[in-house]
Specification:
The structure holds 2 protein chains of 2 kinds. Chain A is α/β, with parallel strands linked by helices. Helices cover 33% and strands 29% of the residues of chain A. Chain B contains 14 helices and 11 strands. The chains are: A alpha/beta, B alpha+beta. The interface between A and B is medium-sized, with 33 and 26 residues.
Chain lengths: 231, 398
């Protein structure tokens, strides 16, 4: 049974005087533990597709099944629970909260999970520190985002995506601000998490070299997708 | 100590982020709460002072010389030193009115002249011990026997001035030496500042010619009404039958002050409403700005698993923390103001009694609820907007 099944997903935006078809009829089955990359130009619908899979927005038509459950049928709280327990997001923009330290930013998803289920995760401090160590920021645990470089902030956000032990990581240009070496380190980290913990990755990138290291590669053009390669 | 990361600590950090803005809002709430606490303390104090006094006196009707109602209230309520007299024959005429059960008289003598008396300016109350039902309960409690001729007992507040306390002293009153045999407990009435003597002493005082009173005169008659009789009808009958006297019902004692208080209350209410509107508007402005500035953050929080209610709870913590901080400071300020102004505000200074700790605590709770409620109400509309932000839209919006 596939972990995630997208059936003819479409997303249409009504702009002033025109209709924009961001995603048009995407059908896809994702198995647990797959590492999928999606390449495509800006505006091709990659980010919108990730948002739909992550329950951040609803498709105009089509359905998404997660473990055979229809995500489209979930209400706002149900989607929040789905995101909190199943999904890890890496956004393409700086997504840290400025008043929180690096460690607190990591603990934020657990704070919300804890509010939902007090016995769920404990305070997660050790886990946050361990993840920060794994992304090379052991000495920045108590630093605020303003005290970090753009690349360091990006790595904190990457670490945060793993805090809730997600089944699926939705990564939108996750290594965009990183230098070559750090980009390589992060890619190895992703592959390790994919291999060791069976985390499923759906990663959007412009970088075709990075994309080629995924087990399946897709390209998107004008909202339509095409499978390029399968390992 | 290790700081545990929680919605509370998160809210606190957000408040600190815009310290000046948060302080401004807390200050507005502080002023609002201070005005609520001061106004309620003031009004409650006046009401409780009057009600304490009327209940302690234990009379249903007070009969005074025509036109002396205000002066009588000033003596009984406001600790003022005043004298007013009517002929003692009034007492028998009052006793003959249907519905009257008991009548007792008091005569107020003012110790104005330094030549007459060795005590500071105060009221000497001469009362008839046989018919008295006003002072007797206080006297029994303290002295355990009636006053003898040549003896005086002083009100609680006068004790300090006359330096009566552990030892009995002799003082000169209207050319006669009186032995001060004790101090009454605090009664909460204006008579706490008086010196009480038996009316057997009046003849000697008249002989000295220093009291400014004619033989047979009394100041005030206190009346108890028989069960089943309407005090209002009895009071009307007194006024209709005795033209030289006014009758004041227990519930009307202090009416003049209550009327003044009503005007003051109106001003207080207007000030509090204005302060509440301004604070509410400021809370709305501050949290509208917060909603705009932090839309992206809300989007991120929602994306990583926060429910609408989690986001609302975080912002409510912020609203509550600012509201509580402002309110607590306001309670302290308002209470301090009411205590300080009580010393200089004529209406409060002269009125007997003070608010107890329980009443002050209740007023503080009312102030806290009022201050926090205004802050919450002002922030409600922006909070509703924050709650309804769609995660993706919110992240793109900023």
């Amino acid at each position: 049974m596939a972990l995630l099944v997208l059936d003819n997903i479409a997303k249409v935006y009504e702009a002033v005087g025109e209709t924009i078809r961001a995603v048009g009829g995407v059908s896809l089955a994702v198995e647990k533990g797959e590492f999928i990359s999606i390449v495509g130009h800006s505006g091709s619908g990659k980010t919108t597709l990730l948002s739909i899979i992550g329950g951040l927005c609803r498709p105009t038509s089509g359905s998404i099944l997660y473990n055979d459950s229809d995500i489209g049928a979930l209400d706002s709280d149900g989607l929040a629970k789905y995101r909190a327990e199943r999904i890890g997001f890496m956004f393409q923009f700086a997504s840290l909260l400025p008043v929180l330290t690096a460690k607190e930013n990591l603990m934020l998803p657990l704070l919300f999970q804890g509010a939902r289920d007090r016995s769920a995760k404990g305070d997660g401090e050790q886990k946050a520190e361990e993840l920060l160590r794994r992304v090379g920021l052991a000495d920045k645990i108590n630093a605020y985002p303003a005290q970090l470089s753009g690349g360091q902030q990006r790595r904190v956000a990457i670490a945060r995506a793993f805090m809730n032990d997600p089944e699926i990581i939705l990564a939108d240009e996750p290594t965009g601000d990183l230098d070559e070496q750090t980009e390589e380190d992060m890619m190895r980290f992703f592959q390790a998490m994919n291999r060791e913990q069976g985390v499923t990755f759906i990663m959007v990138t412009h970088n075709r070299d990075l994309a080629s290291r995924a087990s399946r590669q897709f390209s998107m053009t004008h909202g339509a997708h095409e499978e390029l390669a399968r390992a | 100590m290790k700081n545990r990361f929680s919605l509370f600590s998160f809210a606190l950090k957000n408040i600190r982020r815009k310290a000046v803005r948060s302080t401004m809002l807390a200050s507005a709430i502080m002023l609002l709460t201070a005005s609520i606490v001061f106004a309620v303390s003031f009004i409650t104090r006046v009401h409780s002072g009057i009600s304490l006094m009327t209940s302690r006196l234990g009379a249903d009707i007070m009969v005074v010389p025509t036109g002396s109602r205000g002066a009588a209230e000033e003596v009984l309520l406001e600790n003022k030193v005043k004298s007013f007299y009517m002929d003692g024959s009034v007492l028998d005429r009052v006793r003959n009115i249907e519905g009257v059960e008991e009548v007792t008289a008091q005569t107020y003598l003012v110790t104005l002249s330094a030549l007459c008396c060795s005590v500071p300016e105060s009221i000497v109350v001469a009362f008839d011990q046989k018919s008295d039902f006003i002072v007797r309960p206080w006297l029994t409690e303290k002295l355990g026997r009636p006053l003898k001729k040549g003896e005086a007992i002083v009100g609680h507040e006068s004790a300090f001035n006359i330096t009566v306390g552990l030892v009995e002293i002799d003082s000169m009153l209207f050319g006669n030496v009186f032995r001060m045999v004790g101090v009454l407990d605090k009664t909460g009435t204006g008579l706490d500042n008086a010196i009480f003597i038996s009316d057997e002493n009046i003849t000697d005082i008249l002989r000295s010619g220093t009291a400014g009173i004619k033989p047979g005169q009394v100041s005030i008659a206190f009346v108890k009404v028989r069960k089943g009789y309407d005090p209002k009808l009895v009071a009307n009958a007194v006024e209709n039958n005795i033209l030289e006297a006014d009758a004041v019902m227990r519930k009307d004692i202090g009416k003049r002050i209550i009327q003044t208080l009503r005007d003051v209350s109106g001003i207080f209410t207007a000030a509090v409403v204005l302060a509440a509107l301004l604070s509410g508007f400021l809370a709305w402005t501050v949290f509208s700005a917060v909603a705009n500035e932090r839309a992206r953050e809300v989007g991120i929080m929602r994306a990583i698993g926060a429910r609408e209610s989690d986001v609302v709870r975080l912002f409510l913590w912020e609203v509550f923390l600012i509201g509580i901080a402002g309110s607590v400071l306001g309670i302290i300020g308002g209470t301090a103001l009411s205590v300080m102004l009580a010393r200089s505000f004529i209406l409060l200074k002269d009125l007997a009694g003070d608010l107890g700790i329980a009443v002050r605590a209740l007023i503080a709770v009312a102030g806290l609820i009022g201050g926090v409620a205004v802050c919450v109400i002002g922030a409600l509309s922006p909070l509703r907007r924050i709650k309804k932000l769609e995660p993706l839209g919110a992240m793109k919006e900023a």
